[in-house]
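Figure 2 data, in text form.
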Amino acid sequence: MPQSNLNKFISKFIGKFIGKFQSRFPSKSFQSQPFGLGLLIIVMVIWGSTFPLMKNAIDTLAPAALVAVRFSIAALALLPFLGRLYPQLLWDGAVLGGLFFLTMFTQLKGLETIPANRAAFICGFNVVLVPLLAPVFYRWFGRGQSPQSRGIQFQKWTAAIFALAGLGIMFGGAASWSSGDFWMLLCALAFALHLLYLELISHRHRVMAITGVQLMVVAGMGLIWAAPILKTQVGEITNNWWILVYLGLVVSVFSTSIQMVAQRLVSAPDTALMCTLEPVFATIFAFFLLGEQMNLQGWLGAIVIVAAMLQSQGILPMLFDRAFRSPS
């Protein structure tokens, strides 16, 4: 199949599959939230697969080249669906794209020095950061319209403390921390801000348009980052072509688009809670694809982190209450 026809086929498939969701779910009604949660589970499975794949790819492929090629593929696939461009769309896409690029940059820097499963668990710390940052974020950018701006509950602070304790247990104390751990904490912060801003603007634009602008911004920043070394990476790009196509079309285009739909139905803190599934799937993929293992201490720390994530949403107290409630 000629390359031009292949591009048309990919674009037509993406447009038909995702375009159906652009205007069907305009509100966060109770009835539509389960559908949004289902979409997020699909996203988490896809995202979980990226950690071992990118870990494997950056063994030979420069992180800058990976970002540049991956998001250039995604941007080209969405180019036919941009439609009319207007200032608010460009601004929101630029902010989302900048935060997305920062997330990718810090994630890849972290994966250079730490295992994929460990990186995934640290990135999952955003589930605590989202509810902690939400009141300040929406006070500044959302004009106080979000229910998350009512203040930080005590359980959010305790969850943050327990999550930090879990990180300490998982990594065996401060002495074992590396630069990769701190890169992944920055990744969690950037991702938390991305989730919050995405919730704020998700209803303003068509799914395909805002997704396309966002990914084009990431592609542009990636090309600037990779410009000095891109020519020297042609051979490695060719060797990793299937990973790059998967990351570009499935992970970047498909999952980002359905995440946009899901966050019209699910709040940012609830989305962050669903993201706790990502390190679970990442650990499973890392075990089968890379043979990575975690010791008992690592699993104990991971359990504490997941418990803190559940505590941050009030789910852990509810489970304890149901488990120990005396029968009437």
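Caption note: Confidence is low (pLDDT under 50) at residues 21-31, 144-151.
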